[in-house]
Amino acid sequence: MAVRPAVLITGASTGIGAVYADRFAKRGHDLVLVARNRGRMEELAARLRERDGVNVDIVRADLAAPADLAQIEARLADDARIGVLVNNAGAAAPGSFLDQGPKVVGELIDLNVSALARLTASVAPRFVREGKGSIVNIASVVGLAPEFGLSVYGATKAFVLYLSQSLHLELGPKGVYVQAVLPAATRTEIWSHAGVDVNTLSGVMEVGDLVDAALVGYDRRETVTIPPLPDAQQFADYDAARLAMFANVAQSQPAARYREAM
Ligand code: NAP
Prior knowledge:
Elements: E1 6-10, H1 15-26, E2 31-35, H2 38-52, E3 56-60, H3 66-78, E4 82-87, H4 97-130, E5 134-138, H5 151-171, E6 177-181, H6 190-193, H7 207-219, E7 224-225, H8 232-246, H9 256-259
Parallel strand pairs: 1-2, 1-4, 2-3, 4-5, 5-6, 6-7
Helix pairs in contact: 1-2, 1-7, 3-4, 4-5
Bound molecules: NADP nicotinamide-adenine-dinucleotide phosphate (NAP).
Residues 11-17, 35-37, 61-64, 88-91, 111, 138, 140, 183, 185-186, 188-190, 193 line the site of NADP nicotinamide-adenine-dinucleotide phosphate.
């Protein structure tokens, strides 16, 4: 039987990442858990080692801190046992763009964008050399909807979707699977960190259901998985509209509606 690859999961101390750890352990994968809260990861690792007999490594790292991030980049580049990267660590921030200011905006981008892109860039060359490997990126439906008012958070998630779709095109033919997962509201601590009481929201998914559905999409090798969306055709139509529009943008002249005012 083929050896199952180890799975490195960022943000594995709680929420969506901790459930990914639970589910991949149940499938018999060894794990590398990455987050800042070592105690929580120790507790999770002990339970999974005991229940599933898998090896679980814990790496305490603040992915917004360059030295810590470099350590995870090196591990991904060099450790050939790791065949799946789950880029899950992410944060939202309270308040509007004006409330947040440059420091918070920068921190959100460091974690949600830079860390995710750098970790992906660290592992992708090895996966391509090996002709196999999977990269799961946790985006959000917010990345499709500026109307939600979560400006920078939503923009970071739009980046994750775009990067995933691009890498699907670039790495897919080289044997590497790339999935973007777009949850909507899911019951985790991210809401309280962002100053929102999750109990005031409607249509909130339980985190186990979210990850189980995302893993169905993973097993089906979907490029974009939106667990709460009832009709997959709606996203297909949205994507098709984008492609139809794009067919018209290679023009040597500005559009007539601008030309007539030039
Ligand atoms: P969560 O419960 O707050 O968990 C976030 C995880 O990321 C924790 O394990 C946290 O661990 C880790 N993390 C945060 N900052 C970190 C840092 N600087 N360095 C390393 N690890 C860090 O949130 P969640 O809802 O599970 O979120 C997981 C992903 O799903 C995020 O990318 C989020 O944007 C996305 N998402 C969530 C929802 C939702 O409604 N919950 C919806 C759409 C998308 P430590 O504190 O121990 O570091």
